[in-house]
Amino acid sequence: MLPQFDDTSVTVAIVGCGGFIGSHLLDAILERTRWRVFGVDLDFYRVQHRLNHERCEFLCADLADPAVVERLAKFPLVVNLAAICTPSRYMAESCEVIRSNYDHPAALATACARSGAWLVHFSTSEIYGRTAPDSGELVEDSTPVLLGPVTASRWSYATAKLLAERFIAGLSGLKWTVVRPFNFVGPYMDFMPGVDGEGIPRVLANFSTALLRGEPLKLVNGGKAKRCFTSVHDAVDFLFALFAVGADPKRCGGVLSQAFNVGNPANELSIAELAGKMRSIFAKVRGVDVSTLPEPQVVSGEEYYGVGYDDSMRRLPSVVKADSLLGFKARIPLDVALEESLSWFVKHYDTGASS
Ligand code: UDP
């Protein structure tokens, strides 16, 4: 059972505390509870404003270090957000992707099974694999998984995440909950290529970068794939709903040994439609006419990402389980989430360094 939110004697561990989701979770824990946080990451730029906070301790490390894994498992709750989760890296760095998404979580899960810590592990909606354009709702415990050809190294990430889920579920004595995020968006997501990262970030950061630089948005294979973009604030609210049940002695057992989709099915749209919306929002933020922005360009997946790229054509979450076990439903509409993300991106990066 988890401590109550006003318990000052407790420390929770967040692995990947300096990342996109971790930074929002850290803020929420400090603002909504009296818990202490032990945060592990290799980079803390997103949480600089918390570095001297009296209820935080940070460690610059990763799960490759067995001593760090043992230390983490001593806390009552360990949230594991650490992962390589940028599709452009799945082809060129597939072994690193597998280490970060299988080897490291498996070591952490093994240590938590020994210590009795509750492991909240972030998996991915990508484990549902190479979904077709007409795929229906993806249901946590019943939708079958079809991954693309073994030669398509795009699936290195999904394969590793899926194996980690199976390992966690099979590990005797482990108290676990798995979260499958559906395209979370918000401030501090990813990076701007050439400024604070290299390569191709996920679509939102990529489109935001192109808009700021006056370049065309690139529609991979025509932008026909669909996603349900979900605000990171909904993701944090999901975690608080989970923690609240975890702290309730009568209900805490109900969230263990469960995988939850976390996504907003009402926010579904194609990537081509996303490009249209982001162009309009950018034009509004900048006070220019949308017709002055370059038209989107179609590119092939292999040309854009490299050999081995493949795609999920639709990712529509069933959200029945989170609603029935936690009373949680994502509530932030697409336009609000996109406008917040894009406005943040423009403000954060538009310093002249981007051009
Ligand atoms: N995509 C695109 N243009 C870009 C980046 C991505 O058309 O500049 C497409 C990509 O092929 C996929 C979708 O947008 O169909 C979402 O890609 P993302 O990298 O954000 O992550 P995914 O949801 O595939 O994990």
Give a brief rundown of this model.
With 355 residues, the chain is α/β, with parallel strands linked by helices. The chain contains 11 helices and 13 strands.
| CATH classification class | Alpha Beta
Look at the structure and name the CATH superfamily: NAD(P)-binding Rossmann-like Domain
> Numbering strands along the chain, what is their spatial order in the largest sheet?
3-2-1-4-5-6-11
Overall radius of gyration: 20 Å
Classify the secondary structure makeup into a structural class.
alpha/beta
Low-confidence parts, pLDDT < 50 over ≥5 residues? none
Architecture, CATH level 2? 3-Layer(aba) Sandwich
Instruction: Return the CATH topology.
Output: Rossmann fold
Number of helices: 11
How many domains would you count in the coordinates?
A: 1
Overall average residue pLDDT? 95
Order of helices and strands: EHEEHEHHEHEEHEEEHEEHEHHH
Please give the largest β-sheet: 7 strands, parallel
Estimated helix fraction: 25-40%
**Bound molecule types:** uridine-5'-diphosphate
| Apparent shape | globular
* Euclidean distance between termini CA atoms: 51 Å
Describe this structure in words.
With 355 residues, the chain is of the alpha/beta class. It has a single domain (11-352), classed as NAD(P)-binding Rossmann-like Domain (Rossmann fold). 37% of the residues lie in helices and 15% in strands. The protein is built from eleven helices and 13 strands. It has helices at residues 20-32, 66-72, 87-92, 94-115, 156-170, 203-213, 232-246, 271-286, 301-305, 320-326, 334-349; strands spanning 11-15, 36-41, 56-60, 77-80, 118-122, 175-181, 184-185, 218-220, 226-228, 230-231, 258-262, 268-270, 297-299. The strands form four sheets. A seven-stranded parallel beta sheet has the order 3-2-1-4-5-6-11, with helices on both faces. The chain has a two-stranded parallel sheet with strand order 7-10. Strands 8-13 form a two-stranded parallel ribbon. Helix 2 (66-72) crosses helix 4, helix 6 (203-213) crosses helix 8 (271-286) and helix 6 packs across helix 11. It is globular. The chain starts with 10 loop residues before the first strand and ends in a 6-residue tail after the last helix. The model has no long low-confidence stretch (mean pLDDT 95). It binds uridine-5'-diphosphate.
